[in-house]
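User: Fold this one for me? It's Putative nucleotide-binding alpha-beta plait domain-containing protein.
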Amino acid sequence: MQLHIRVLQIAKNETDPNNTTIFVGNLDANVTDDHLRTVFSQYGELVHVKIPAGKRCGFVQFADRSRAEEALQGLNNSQIGGQNIRLSWGHSPSNKQQVLCFNTIT
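Assistant: Here's what I get for Putative nucleotide-binding alpha-beta plait domain-containing protein.
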């Protein structure tokens, strides 16, 4: 008999009106926090910009949800530093994910 545990995370990132964080994927290795700040700040006030060390992704947090939506629509698949970036909603501190666990016995 084996016990299998599956964990599904249900994120409300797209519909959470309080989430103002955008995940930026497929970043060129030479893009910096300051570069992202320059590109995204044309859409509105930024609260936080971070590219984790050694990663080819980053996070941009706006002060306002509507500005984040505009940036997401306007910049998705655009080119920064020679790479086409992909954008999606990130995780904001107020947006805790629901976690569902399923146990199955075989």
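One thing worth pointing out: Residues 20-93 form a domain with the Alpha-Beta Plaits fold (CATH 3.30.70.330).
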